[in-house]
What does this fold into?
Amino acid sequence: MVCLVITYFCAMIKVFLRRKISQRIANGHPWIFNNEVEKVEGDVHGGEVVEVFTHDKKFIGKGYINPRSQILVRLLSRDKNADVNEQYFYRRIEECWEYRKKIGYTENCRLVFGEADSLPQLIIDKFNDHFVIQTLALGIDVWKPAIVKALNEIFKPKGIYERNDVPVRELEGLVQQKGFLSAPFETRIVINENGLKFHVDIENGQKTGYFLDQQDNRKAIQHIVKGGDVLGAFTYTGTFEIHAAHYGAKSVLGLDISENAVEQANRNAELNGLGNVCRFQAANAFDVLKQWVKEGKQYDVVMLDPPAFTKSRETIQKAITGYKEINLRGMKLVKPGGFLVTSSCTNLVNPELFLQIIDMAAKDARRKIRQVVFQTQSADHPIIWGLENTQYLKFLIIQVI
Ligand code: SAH
It folds into this structure.
């Protein structure tokens, strides 16, 4: 309480940008890097809300500051009159919810997608009555109680869980942690998607437990899998594969390197009464696909959804090599006239580069390809033009001739 009162009465910290900074910030980008700042007026500890000005004292916006981070300030608002307080977060989260309802994502959705929702580094996934949150920077982490309070007031949820076991928090001087932000609840829940049911393990699943960003893309395989033999690699809990079986595939085999994922995928198949069509196997997809190419195996549809392969621009070549290699192998396993369904989830590989990689793989495989569908993540993960990390998912279906 004392702390809050002091913050309230103290003059707000002021950050002045250098004269020659890129247009990026003026054009709406919310990140301000250390080397773009001329001076900071006030006593900074980290996590405070600050006002940002141009070198000639024109107001730019309000954001939160962390001297430990390379991104010194992340802007929350361009409004001089915005009071960043508990009520502010309530209103923003309410606006995020109104937007999701407007675009038709209600039962399960990414309720808050960080920078794209003007709440930098805040992720909130809504799994029906349960919420999973990530606060990945110090300046948003300090508002966690306000965020939880807002969720309780707006949704009256059955449970809220924190999945802050993410290494990027360490760059902000934060510890990795996970746990309940509400009374404890059963963290293994079941959600509905496209008329199917899926187990979601909020506590121990990958990221927030489930990849909501592919929800529309899973539906996009509806027609091409009918009556076919389908192979899926990087299956995780089997979501694409179970969709394939539901849409009428003759046989479906899913591969994942994680035994735990395979076990969950099998449970998901059973949950939907599709255990007789779907089979899952723990395997390294790189090795197995290579072996099966040698053996001359063929499928009507091959689906790939590999992890990012790299998290930094320096090792981008590693990602390119990985994507090319796996897609080359995948393509070779497709019967003439069949389909390859392929994804890439890192923003470091932009859509154009991804298509180039697929093109290279097709040339190496000596196969002609035809684009069927090319899209991105579902619309509950909004894309802000100029904010490159908001467009990250590429989802491509090609016919392999
Ligand atoms: N398609 C899934 C998400 C896949 S995430 C969905 O929509 O829910 C990527 C998956 O690839 C993870 O489950 C991870 O365990 C798996 N994986 C990583 N490297 C692998 C490899 N070499 N072989 C097989 N699976 C791998």
In short: The pocket of S-adenosyl-L-homocysteine is lined by residues 211, 214, 233-237, 239-240, 255-258, 261, 284-286, 305-307 (CB under 6 Å). Residues 86-103 form the longest helix (18 residues). The mean pLDDT is 96. The CA atoms of residues 132 and 362 lie 40 Å apart.
